[in-house]
Design goal:
Elements (H helix, E strand, L loop, with lengths): L5 E9 L4 H17 L7 E7 L7 E8 L1 H4 L5 H11 L4 E11 L15 E9 L4 H11 L8 E7 L5 E8 L2 H6 L14 E11 L15
Antiparallel strand pairs: 1-3, 1-4, 2-3, 2-8, 4-6, 5-7, 5-8, 6-7
Helix pairs in contact: 1-3
């Protein structure tokens, strides 16, 4: 069960032509986390379908309290290994902290580690966050499958939200696309919305066991 509502998500962009070197460096860095006995559960996704972030890699950890986020494993050594194994092959593009919104979601804030996921980013007009959340709250009872909403609290312009829908396959995501629009009452509140598809990286997970259920 989650210890708290917070998620930390970061994303890196491998250098052009350097994907193989980046992959090898990322595996080495993840092995450092294992050797350091990191107790956090780390999800690693590659961005599969995106207009701007194709093949970028997302690192995410969920279900933290503020105290937990304040106590990562060996931060100085972690940064040293990052400099050695990640930074020569990629550029960090962002690091964010989000708060899980249970009243808008179906699930407990820690996503099922399925092989695919839909990742939706919604930038809301200034001052419209409360109205946006109220509209989503009215839709919450109609959610039949896992759909997790998070509000950005650190790392960028607010109000900004992400929705994560873990699914077993791309087909499952496509089959549900007509059932997952934002409520009509959010019209006029949203400045920008981006929908991307993520692929879980089973060889890069820490304290996470992939869910390989039927598509």
């Amino acid at each position: 069960m989650p210890h708290g509502p917070y998620a930390r998500i970061s994303i890196v962009r491998p250098h052009d032509g350097g994907t193989v070197a980046f992959e090898a460096g990322s595996v080495r860095h993840i092995e450092w986390h294992r050797q350091a006995k990191d107790t956090w559960a780390w999800y690693v996704y590659s961005v599969w379908a995106s207009a701007a972030r194709q093949r970028w890699v997302m690192y995410a950890t969920f279900g933290h309290s503020a105290a937990s986020l304040n106590n990562p494993v060996s931060p100085v050594e972690d940064e040293r290994d990052n400099i050695l194994n990640i930074q020569p092959y990629a550029q960090f593009q962002g690091n964010w902290v989000y708060e899980f919104l249970p009243a808008l979601s179906r699930g407990n804030g820690v996503p099922t580690p399925t092989l695919r996921a839909e990742y939706t980013t919604v930038e809301v007009n200034s001052g419209a966050g409360d109205a946006f959340e109220a509209a989503l709250g009215l839709q919450q009872l109609t959610l039949e499958k896992e759909a997790l909403w998070y509000r950005m609290v650190i790392g960028g312009n607010v109000p900004c939200y992400v929705r994560l829908r873990p699914r077993a396959s791309l087909a499952a995501i496509l089959d549900e696309r007509e059932d997952q629009p934002l409520p009509g009452t959010t019209r006029g509140l949203v400045a920008k919305m981006t929908v991307e598809t993520l692929n879980l990286r089973p060889n890069m997970l820490i304290n996470v066991t992939p869910d390989e259920g039927k598509p």
